[in-house]
Design goal:
One of its GO terms (cellular component) is plasma membrane. One of its GO terms (molecular function) is transmembrane transporter activity. InterPro entries: MFS (IPR011701), MFS_trans_sf (IPR036259), MFS_Transporters (IPR050171). It is a multi-pass membrane protein. The chain is mainly alpha-helical. The chain has 2 domains: 182 residues, Up-down Bundle (Growth Hormone, Chain: A), CATH 1.20.1250.20; 193 residues, Growth Hormone, Chain: A, CATH 1.20.1250. Strands 1-2 form a two-stranded antiparallel sheet. The radius of gyration is 22 Å and the shape is globular. The two termini are 15 Å apart.
Length: 431
């Protein structure tokens, strides 16, 4: 798929998208993948409870078990990425995900649900480090963070389109709409896998015997022992679990806060989320300017902490503003604006340290380790946020700001002066 010259110029000059053929194809992959995911996420639980007729508690337990399986498989994925290459693993993950979500159409009981959910979650969890490793292989070190930011922007567009498509299908045919949504998601993975086969991946070469030993050691040397011995990287991965507080605070905390502790109407949640999505699309790439190395991330982490602290204060203020509806709405808008800035800067810090501090010969293993922080936060974050907002609302946002702030400050300290592994020189590309 080739974009018109005007759009390519806009992407390159205003957004900062690297002018690399594989990048344009990857943008389409990101959009198509996100459209399918955006279609599926809002309806999966409803489909399982109303169409398949599984108990809601069983669905929750099943999804938790599947997510745990995906987390446990992450280290194996890292080894496979290093062994077979990121492009091969991205294609394999897309094909596995397609099989998993086609399988959702054939669920008839709890056991069959567990099987297909585990397959789908393993593919989803494995796909994250594989995609990051593929991005790292497609472009230079200086181009990686802008490309990841661009990917996140277009994925937000895709999520929006997917949600609208899902709503339209369910409106036209409630029963058949669920099947169409799940089939559409599975097909999106197949299309994405087909597109990835045409992406060129840079091969590296060494230029001296010393480089052979020091720069590009065999993938088998050290393995996960070498990854775990990198204490700075392991610590940054652990701290990322705290930095990601902004994710659960937005997705879980904000709707609950508005409903239980402010006088704002429930419909405002949708407006605020739409505003957040639009800001991510518009600003994510722009906020990566000047950040291409791990050593440049300390100010980014500090900005994320400061923005979230401001958001926390304003969220709290909205709860004590009483019935002054205009003031409450204005405060919530300001809070989500600051929250979004924290989200944008937090993402930039995460991408930069996770990819740039991973040596090429073990990049799959490094990124699979870092991806565990996302799974850990998905398990811990919602529980923390819900308990704070329901049991200690007067302290909730300040505790969340302290958690995120501590994670950001410690990450900034660790990233200061971090030395990135040397990049081997390019030799050739393969289609």
């Amino acid at each position: 798929m080739k974009a018109p010259p005007l759009l390519r110029g806009l992407a390159r000059d205003w957004i900062g998208l690297p002018d690399v053929p594989g990048v344009r194809r990857w943008a389409w992959v990101a959009v198509i993948d996100a459209i399918g995911t955006g279609m599926r996420i809002p309806v999966t639980v409803i489909y399982l409870t109303t169409v398949v007729d599984l108990p809601a508690a069983s669905v929750g337990i099943g999804l938790g078990v599947a997510a745990l399986a995906g987390t446990v498989c992450a280290p194996l994925t890292g080894a496979l990425i290093d062994r077979f290459g990121p492009r091969t693993m991205v294609i394999a993950c897309f094909l596995t995900a397609a099989a998993g979500y086609f399988g959702y159409l054939a669920i008839w009981d709890l056991a069959s649900f567990l099987v297909v959910a585990i397959v789908a979650e393993i593919a989803e969890h494995s796909g994250r480090p594989a995609k990051q490793a593929l991005v790292a292989a497609m472009v230079t070190a200086e181009q990686r963070v802008p490309l990841m930011a661009f990917q996140r922007s277009v994925r937000n567009i895709g999520f929006g389109l997917g949600g609208l498509t899902s709503a339209a299908l369910l409106t036209l045919d409630a029963q058949g709409g669920y099947h169409a949504v799940l089939a559409g998601d599975a097909i999106s993975f197949l299309v994405a896998a087909g597109l990835v086969t045409g992406i060129r991946v840079t091969h590296r070469r060494v230029t001296s015997p010393q480089a052979t030993e020091q720069t590009v050691p065999p993938a088998t040397r050290g393995g996960f022992r070498e990854v775990l011995a990198d204490r700075r990287y392991v610590a940054l991965a652990v701290l990322n679990t705290m930095v990601m507080t902004h994710v659960t605070a937005l997705n879980v905390g904000v709707p609950l806060w508005i409903d239980q502790h402010t006088s704002a109407p429930p419909g405002l949640v949708g407006v605020l989320f739409a505003m957040n999505t639009a800001l991510v699309v518009i600003l994510q790439v722009r906020l990566t300017k000047g950040v291409s190395t791990a050593g440049q991330t300390p100010p980014v982490y500090l900005r994320a902490a400061a923005a979230f602290a401001l958001a926390a204060v304003v969220y709290w203020a909205a709860s004590v503003a009483g019935d002054a509806l205009a003031l409450v709405v204005a405060l919530l808008v300001v809070a989500v604006l600051a929250h979004t800035v924290a989200e944008l800067y937090g993402a930039v810090g995460e991408w930069t340290v996770s990819v740039n501090l991973a040596p090429e010969h073990l990049r799959g293993r490094y990124l699979s380790l870092f991806s565990i922080s996302f799974s850990a936060h998905q398990a811990i974050g919602p529980v923390l946020v819900i308990l704070l907002i329901t049991q200690a609302p007067e302290l909730a946002w300040f505790v969340l700001a302290a958690v995120l702030g501590a994670g950001c400050l410690a990450s900034a300290w660790l990233a200061r002066g971090a030395r990135e592994p040397a990049e081997p020189k390019e030799m050739s590309t393969t289609p």
